[in-house]
Amino acid sequence: MTPRGTYRQIADDLRRRIGTGDLAPGDLLPSELMLVELHKVSRGTVRSALALLADEGLVEVVRGQGRRVTGSSPSSKPVTAYERIAEELRGRLDAGEFPAETLLPSEAELMNEYAVSRNTVRRAYRQLVETGHVVVRHGSGAFPARR
User: Which of 103, 118, 139, 147 is least surrounded by Cβ atoms within 10 Å, i.e. has the fewest?
Assistant: First the structure.
């Protein structure tokens, strides 16, 4: 039987590996099964550790692939739908397609264009806000950020 709080120790180990760059942004984490065998714990314990890291925003689930470290490295290709949308919008912004104070496509327009959910579009816009490419004004929409 493993001691209580083992999932926190596993999360701490993965957090440390992310912090040192051993697991870089965009890298897939070891599978649940590998973590179970490595730490000699149950799958539930591993899932609790991974859920903790997901709640902190350090990892995310990539359907059909596993969990990966959030963020992206300059050399990594977008994996998720929101990353692809953000990359395409970033390219359009960099190309000057949207002059300053021009309203960017609405969530509904992007949902239809990419056949994705509203949450996916919002996440793409959130990523663009975090990188300083877009400003979202509540009730007005998204606009190119001043550079």
Answer: 139
